[in-house]
Structure formats: C-alpha cells, structure tokens
Amino acid sequence: MTTILVTGGTGTLGRLVTERLRADGHEVRVLSRRTQPYAVDLRAGGAGLDAAVAGVETVVHCASTPKGGDEEAARNLIAAARRAGVGHLVYISIVGVDQVPLGYYRTKLAVERLVEESGLGWTTLRTTQFHDLLVTLCASLGRLPVLAVPAGVADQPVEAAEVAEQLVELALAAPAGRVPDLAGPEVHGLDSLARAWLRATGRRRPVVRVPLFGKAYRAFRAGCHLAPDRALGKVTFEDHLTRRFGTGHDH
C-alpha cells in the first residue's frame, strides 16, 4: 500500500478523502495547521513540511482558503514534494476558475498552473460547489428577516463524498493531467435552492432575488461555473438536506 499525504486533511473534503484511503488500507498522513504530528502552515513551509512529505508517493492537495495564501502554500508544497521525490500531486479545483473573474477563482487558477508547471506527475480535478458550501451560505443569509440571493444565478451543487471518492480513485491511479470536471446532478436557481433549505430547516423567510453588478456576477449569470454536460453526481441538494436536517422540523 502507498503512503499518501492529504493537505487540509481535517476539512470537509480532506477528512472524507483521508477516511476512504485509510479504509482501503493505505497509510495516510494528515497535514493541517493544528493536527499533530504534521501540524504545518503551508504558507510558511520549513522543516515540518519536509518531514511530512518525506517518503510519500502521492500528495492530495485539498488545503485552500479564500482568505489568501494559496499560491505561496502551493509553491512551498511543490518545492518540498520535489525534494522528497513525490511521484504524483493531485489538486482539487473549481469549475469556472478560468472564466469567472473572482479573486478566489483567479487564485485557484494560478495554483492549477503552478501544479502543471511543477515538474511532478500531476492530476487536477475541477468540481462544482459542494452542497455544504450552499448550506453555509443559506445559513449566513438566513440570519436576516429576508433571504436575499443574486438574481438570475443558478448553481449545480455536488456532494463532497462523491468528490472524495473521485479524488481517491485519481490518487491511486497514474498522473492524468487535467481530468474531466465533476458536477452535481441538477442545476437550479439560487432562489429555488434557498427555498429548499428553508423548508428543510423549518424556517420561514421571504426569498428575494437581488440584481448585482460587475464582471463576476455576469459570469455567474452566464453559468460559467456550471457543467451541465458533466452532471455525474448522484446526490441532489434535496437529498443532502434530508440527510442533514431530516424532513423539515425546526432546528
């Protein structure tokens, strides 16, 4: 069995990837800022990162944050992986990073390019947004008396567990470069998804579609973050809500 390092291994996706790999009998090292014995801030690099990567055949890079620092983290990880002779670097990205002019998307695209130019064997998978992210967004917006969503924007959320399964398959295979996108099974307007969340959580709020402005909003309205031809996910947003909240009682 191979030794695999999962960065961001305590996060929504990384935890699921780690669980699946360990269930298959692989030795998995979890790298995050606070988890011993590989508590490493990727943005800082250093001896701790070299120790985490030593003897590893494959790295699954799930660590990411919209708060900044992803490019620096990727550079440090790639440099350490080169020094350790890592054979395969697997990176998770987002559908539309090359079309939506949003700061975080631009950063993800920049990291994709660093991975491609790393000199390592590499695989990059882009997916649509996770159901979990949409639930978090709705919960944040739902604190107000009115739940406002961007007008004319749809989403195609995918189950994180299905993404994890795909990442594990890719990590255990040979480097494949940029692989086909993975998207959720259904495309729905954000207003429809917000109403589904309200029903599932037993909340009552008017849902209001608010027109926004700017290039990123136009790209989202145009569906640049969607992949209807890659709707391979099986779990719908309604399925996810039912599993998470039951059938609509107060929470």
Summarize the structure.
InterPro entries: Ergot_Alk_Oxidoreductase (IPR051604), NAD(P)-bd_dom (IPR016040), NAD(P)-bd_dom_sf (IPR036291). This protein is an alpha/beta fold and 251 residues long.
Give the secondary structure arrangement, pairings included:
Blueprint: E1 3-7, H1 12-23, E2 27-31, H2 47-53, E3 58-61, H3 70-84, E4 88-94, H4 103-116, E5 122-127, H5 131-141, E6 147-150, E7 154-155, H6 160-172, E8 177-178, E9 188-189, H7 190-201, E10 207-210, H8 215-221, H9 237-245
Parallel strand pairs: 1-2, 1-3, 3-4, 4-5, 5-8, 6-10
Antiparallel strand pairs: 7-9
Helix pairs in contact: 1-6, 3-4, 7-9
Domain NAD(P)-binding: 8-132
InterPro entries: Ergot_Alk_Oxidoreductase, NAD(P)-bd_dom, NAD(P)-bd_dom_sf
Walk me through this protein's architecture.
It is a single chain. The strands form three sheets. Strands 2-1-3-4-5-8 form a six-stranded parallel beta sheet, with helices on both faces. It has 251 residues and is α/β, with parallel strands linked by helices. The radius of gyration is 19 Å and the shape is globular. The chain has a single domain (3-245), classed as NAD(P)-binding Rossmann-like Domain (Rossmann fold), CATH 3.40.50. The chain contains nine helices and ten strands. Helix 1 (12-23) packs across helix 6, helix 3 packs parallel to helix 4 (103-116) and helix 7 packs parallel to helix 9. The mean pLDDT is 95. 41% of the residues are buried. 40% of the residues lie in helices and 16% in strands. Helix 1 links the parallel strand 1 and strand 2 (27-31). The chain has helices spanning 12-23, 47-53, 70-84, 103-116, 131-141, 160-172, 190-201, 215-221, 237-245; strands at residues 3-7, 27-31, 58-61, 88-94, 122-127, 147-150, 154-155, 177-178, 188-189, 207-210.
